[in-house]
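Lecture 7 notes: from sequence to structure.

We start with a single chain of 153 residues. Read the sequence below before looking at the structure.
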Amino acid sequence: MTVALAPVTGRVVSLADVPDAVFAGQLVGAGVAIEPSAPPAGGRLVDVVSPVDGEVVKLHPHAFAVVHESGTGLLVHVGIDTVKLGGEGFELAIAEGAAVAAGDVVVRFDPTVVAAAGYSAVCPVVVLDSAPDSVPQQSVGSDVEVRSALFEF
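Now the structure, written as tokens:
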């Protein structure tokens, strides 16, 4: 089993509670989501880190996919409908194709930009192409710190 780390600090919620039918229905895979904690005062960007060691095979300002050496891919989506922001409020920390270690910063974002646009900042973390309900849900309802264990796959 491989441990996936929390990409952000916040409260873990079920994918069923994510305001997006694709994630809520586990159509791209099973997982959990994190409702990010409020950022510290001063408008600092929030780091979003890789949940596993691997290669970043897809990278957008609002989402990225990392393929672990086992061949399993994980998707981290930063907010819902945030693709519509066209990268505003987001900053890439690496390039697509980069090798990352679990916990390396991949993206930074400003939750105030996401909120001002009326979008949810919830961050689904999904094991791509996994069967519905195949990711442990013990962490749902708990608070997690960035880089702490989120689930095993």
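Residues 10 and 37 are 5 Å apart (CA to CA). Keep this in mind for problem set 3.
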